[in-house]
Amino acid sequence: MKPLSPSAACAAKCLFAVMLYMKENCGEVATKEINDIIRKRVDFTDWEEERAGKLQNIRWWSVTQFYSIDYNKAGYILKKQGSWYLTPEGEEAIKLGADQILRKANAAYRKWRQEKDLDADDAVEEETPEKATIVNIERLEEQANDGIRKYIKAKNPYEFQDMVAALLRAMGYYTPFIAPKGRDGGVDVIAYIDALGAKTPRIKVQVKHRPDDCIPAKDIRSLLGILRDGDIALFVTSGTYSQQARTEALTSKTYIKLIDGEEFIQMWQDNYSKMTDDNKNMLPLKHIAFVGSSE
Description:
By secondary structure, the protein is α/β, with parallel strands linked by helices. It has 12 helices and 12 strands.
């Protein structure tokens, strides 16, 4: 088998380190943390530490960004809202080892180029015009999402709770109950699908403003424990969930939906146009259009 090029070999070990990190940490990682994670886990040659290309970026970081697109096309990682997620296919692929993962990912990228009637032979290189466009868009999206995350993080728990209620109203639900300050009864918002609350299901919502924390399974069990007939549960956090918490929700006999910080941002964007001006001002957004990739 032909050995990997120096660039590909560098990307393989960097991306393998990220995949292992995601497997160890709830299956995800914030995009802004990836550079530091790789630095802590990977040893580099002098050549890999050199600055190269038009933008004079550090070589190992550039090839990691470009080859990560191959991993995305292969379905090993999912990039969404400023985070990377390790898919079940990606977790299984870890068994193959760093080099073999990259070979399979690059094959998936070549197939994608063929389907787009692009030159598949160019796909063996780390940088193509399509990849350059995708990487630039990802950088812009990450900058925007980082600003949104910081804005939410600066909110206090009651302000974040009000944002959750505002989102539910934009989605067509009624929110007759929003817990007042000082109250801690386990339910922060109650949402109905009709104005009178006569129809089921009734949604009991727990909100945790913990942007830097991973919600444990015990918190999910606590919410499920206070549900009554006709209730379903919604748990919203500005942070993330442990894998055990997600498993708890998936295996529950009672329906419970988990929304983490990144999904909350996506839902806010998706429903922003349906909000009142007062609710929009809780997290004001401005839409900017630019040329996208050929995906």
